[in-house]
Known about the structure:
- This protein is α+β, with helices and mostly antiparallel strands.
- It has one domain (2-183): Alpha-Beta Complex (YbaK protein).
- Helix content is 25%, strand content 32%.
- The strands form four sheets. A five-stranded mixed sheet has the order 8-5-6-9-12. The chain has a four-stranded antiparallel sheet with strand order 3-4-11-10.
- The two termini are 31 Å apart.
- It holds the Pfam family tRNA_edit.
- InterPro entries: YbaK/aa-tRNA-synt-asso_dom_sf, YbaK/aa-tRNA-synth-assoc-dom.
- One of its GO terms (molecular function) is aminoacyl-tRNA deacylase activity.
Amino acid sequence: MQLGTLTWSPALDHPDLLAPSTLATLRTWAEQHPAVAGAVHVTEIDPGLADTAALTEAHDLPLAASANCVLVAGRRAGEERVAAAVVLATTRADVNTAVKRLLDVRKASFLAMDRAVEESQMQYGGITPVGLPTPWRVLVDSRVPAAGDVVIGSGVRHSKLALPGDLLAQLPAAEVVEDLALPRPG
Length: 186
């Protein structure tokens, strides 16, 4: 696999580059769908470049090949509803309309960093939809499956995953949603 100037290898061959929950999810997913093992790759990066803008600039990655995963929550009748929204880096999650409607809550907001890290068991800047807690919904913008190979977090700041966007949309618990994202202001 070639994306930017990074060297990519099969993710399951490098468990040290994955958060424990990401590794467990990939192993289970690959057992159920053997093609996953050869389609999900990982690369080691400088943790200081974990943020999308820094990584794409430093490693000649097209911004359209990066996807971001943000954690969002809202309440309805005393029940908290949490979801991950996965959108291309050229867009931003439509939290105030699309995510709020999908969660069926009055107000949706991003999880605070400390809470996102604690509850996802992943590092900030590396949070990925691969390995999130089971009850959380994984909302994938419909542009992601059409994007070809996409770069996402690995659960840790010192690596990134790359996989076909259409495979990401097949992740257990993934829900592909039209217009989950809005274009980034230019």
